[in-house]
Amino acid sequence: MGENEASLPNTSLQGKKMAYQKVHADQRAPGHSQYLDNDDLQATALDLEWDMEKELEESGFDQFQLDSAENQNLGHSETVDLNLDSIQPATSPKGRFQRLQEESDYITHYTRSAPKSNRCNFCHLLKILCTATILFIFGILIGYYVHTNCPSDAPSSGTVDPQLYQEILKTIQAEDIKKSFRNLVQLYKNEDDTEISKKIKTQWTSLGLEDVQFVNYSVLLNLPGPSPSTVTLSSSGQCFHPNGQPCSEEARKDSNQDLLYSYAAYSAKGTLKAEVIDVSYGMADDLKRIRKIKNVTNQIALLKLGKLPLLYKLSSLEKAGFGGVLLYIDPCDLPKTVNPSHDTFMVSLNPGGDPSTPGYPSVDGSFRQSRSNLTSLLVQPISASLVAKLISSPKARTKNDACSPLELPNNEVRVISMQVQTVTKLKTVTNVVGYVMGLTSPDRYIIVGSHHHTAHSYNGQEWASSTAIITAFIRALMSKVKRGWRPDRTIVFCSWGGTAFGNIGSYEWGEDFKKVLQKNVVAYISLHSPIRGNSSLYPVASPSLQQLVVEKNNFNCTRRAQCPETNISSIQIQGDADYFINHLGVPIVQFAYEDIKTLEGPSFLSEALFSTRATKIEEMDPSFNLHETITKLSGEVILQIANEPVLPFNALDIALEVQNNLKGDQPNIHQLLAMASRLRESAELFQSDEMRPANDPKERAPIRIRMLNDILQDMEKSFLVKQVPPGFYRNILYHLDEKTSRFSILIEAWEHCKPLASNETLQEAVSEVLNSINSAQVYFKAGLDVFKSVLDGKN
Question: Is residue 645 a contact partner of residue 700, using CB atoms and an 8 Å limit?
Fold first, then answer.
């Protein structure tokens, strides 16, 4: 793979200068100087203290007690007796993670029994004072020597300054993001994406990011053919391009990229002549109704995008026997201000990664499977105007502006011939990866992901917003790093390639470094398509991070005139966070602006990739203030996760989310409810018994914090299931959309078993959920047991 070897900081995989070393300094007891490790110095100090104790025994001071804070023997923290009284967990409906206040009953007392005698002697007292004076002078000399000859490293952020984040983020300016955006847009006109990757690498390096590298993978891409696909009406012989324009030589010669790239990547190719059958959204009820009245074998389905994942609907159509699919977006599903009648779009049928190396990375020597198409269906996206011509419907909206959904009359027959042309080629996809090394926990990564334009893909401009935002944050961060500060944990910045074809760059990188990432990744911050509208901030976060997002958003709102209530949910999203959610079980956060009308419409419309022009993005955010807000919100979350001694994750919120997913009238959930109750009990104990003491600075022992953080970062891994329907998330904590609040695999299984006498599918889904909840409950309980055994070992 060559260039890929240095794409992760300090992992043994690379064998380069980035190899990590274990950091043991944070495991020393509080007060232990790293410069007093010399055996002779420590032995001398201990001998002097022992002589002093012998003098005390001889002099016989009654009830003499060494002060725990000042005279505790260095290196003897194992004698500490931790008083860990349990507390009640947070009682907010969301299980709010709070920084707990110090309380008197949580103060740890470092005490030692005092030597006793019958009476004191003035001479002995004088000797004691002399000895103490000598020790005091000796300590001053050591401190002076250490300070003079051993300058300390850059200051750690273990004690977090509340103003630190704002000091970094205040340098982010909308005008700088706007300039960066415009510069990037000028580069995309080059068909080859090499120039864009080089520009990003050069800019990140100039800002001071460490070891910025290209990580290249040779992957199988499904590209459009030499000419646009066509749809021909058999009754009239009229031929149309996907945008509804008539076929002609002039159109073929002058066909722009928008027309050429209106296709479904990894569709089957060829020609099919058959009857068009309107299946609406392709829901289970739609297919059940149609199959009762028509033979659908080798027919062409007229399918609306939305409501369910496209891959799931295509799988259902393929099982039903259809031969082809005409895919479109109904104008009634979009805001009135949007007129998509002649707009064409691209979709990818790739669930993720290089199709020729499923489940393993595309490195040199890997076996490549022959998979030019990922479905037997001929799939062609078409515009709403072409659908109107097929069904002979002139307008979608009536005189009173009420929208009339497009649909083919049941009593009419339409026979068409569809031709799909695609070409499959091996191409290079490039990721750009750089990092800022953490100071105290360099082997823990916060990954920040954007994406850049990939050659041979649709020329949308949201990638320029994504890249401009990540670059703006890097600039602000590195200005602070250059002055000597570093985050506690490593921050890895990634600009992914091949996103439009199925998140190929991120999947291949994830598969390439899977073993390292499974152990070390703490969180993923997504900057995918941040500006999709301008009316509503739309954050998505894992259950364990929702409270952090609420706090950051509320703080940001106090600085703005308008502060609408923000709805934060854990739902399926588009973009490169997919691999980290579904294969690594990593908590994620994504901020984006949307049109509120779009949010009210069907879900999964964002699976369509339109040619969003740069002028459109500047129309939505002319001042680039929305870009600035996304940068600062994302940046503050990144900094807090990278810098807080205790990860700001909420264990109890996961348990509450599980219980909420089981509300309502659902079949076969009695066992699930009982298991969810046990999970909540364990999460409450974990949050009260372990997270509260860890937030008390007096009990923040490094080994305890490390153990706690290891548990927190792996909480969601228990909810990864092996088998899910196509297009559904393997991480079952995520819903299909914000309108549903139940486990998606249970909803699908219930719908699937309705027309069947057997409910085996439902039983399998219930078993998957039950095992996940049980695994999480055991995980929290095991964490409690580990802490208890460690503490018992110290007592």
Answer: yes
Whole-number Å distance between alpha carbons of 199 and 430 = 13
Amino acid at 215: V
pLDDT in tens, 694-708: 666 666 778 888 888
At a CB cut-off of 8 Å and minimum separation 6, what does 363 contact? 1, 4, 217, 512
**Predicted pLDDT at 122:** 57
Whole-number Å distance between alpha carbons of 5 and 361: 13
Q: How would you label 556-594 residue by residue, b for 16+ Cβ within 10 Å and e otherwise?
A: beeeeeeeeebebbbbbbbbbbbbbbbbbbbbbbbbbbb
Strand runs labelled E in 452-581: 489-496, 521-526, 536-537, 540-541
CA gap 465, 171 in Å, rounded? 18
pLDDT at 721 over 80: yes
pTM for this entry: 0.80
How far apart are the two ends of the chain, measured CA to CA in Å?
52
**Identity of the residue numbered 480:** K
Q: How far apart are alpha carbons 471 and 343 in whole angstroms?
A: 31
Q: Is 259 left (phi over 0), alpha (psi -120 to 50) or beta?
A: alpha
Phi/psi-derived region of residue 613, left when phi > 0, alpha when psi is between -120 and 50, beta in every other case: beta
Give the 3-state DSSP-derived string for 289-331, with helices as H, strands as E and coil as C. Answer: HHHHHCCCCCCEEEEECCCCCHHHHHHHHHHHCCCEEEEECCH
Contact 498, 463 (CB under 8 A): no
Residue at token pair 């030597």: 115
Sign of CA dihedral 347, 351, 352, 353: negative
| pLDDT digits 0-9 by tens, 411-463 | 889 999 999 989 999 999 999 999 999 999 999 999 999 999 876 666 568 89
Backbone angles phi, psi at 454, to 5 degrees: -110, 135
The angle formed by the CA atoms of residues 468, 470 and 472, to the nearest 5 degrees, is 65
Residue type for position 569: S
Q: Quick check: 198 and 661 in contact, CB under 8 A? A: no
| d(C-alpha 309, C-alpha 670), whole Å | 29
CA distance 333 to 510: 35
Residue 212 backbone dihedrals phi, psi, to 5 degrees: -70, 130
Closest CA to 317 of 343, 346, 345, 280: 280
Which pLDDT tens digit goes with each residue over 649-673?
Answer: 999 999 999 999 998 777 778 889 9
Exposed e or buried b for every residue in 224-249, given b needs 16+ CB within 10 A?
A: beebbbbbbbeeeeebbbbbbbebee
* Cβ neighbours of residue 185 closer than 8 Å, sequence gap 6 or more: 461, 464, 614
DSSP annotation of 384: H
The amino acid occupying position 394 is: P
User: 638 phi and psi, to 5 degrees?
Assistant: -60, -50
Furthest C-alpha separation in the chain: 121
CB proximity list for 586: less than 8 A, separation 6 or greater:
447, 521, 522, 523, 524, 580, 713, 716
Half-sphere exposure at residue 793, Cβ-oriented, CA atoms within 13 angstroms: 6
Tell me the residue length of the chain: 795
Rg (CA), the chain: 31
Residue carrying the six token digits 């009239």:
236
Reference 711, options 651, 772, 774; nearest CA is 651
- How far apart are the C-alpha atoms of 726 and 281, rounded to whole Å? 16
Could you tell me which of 590, 712, 724 has the C-alpha nearest to residue 653?
712
**Where in 599-686 does DSSP place strands (E)?**
609-610
What is the C-alpha separation between 396 and 398, in angstroms, rounded?
7
Encoding tokens for residue 522?
């703490």
Lowest mean pLDDT among 148-157, 531-540, 631-640: 148-157
Residue type, 669: I
In the DSSP assignment, the letter for residue 531 is B
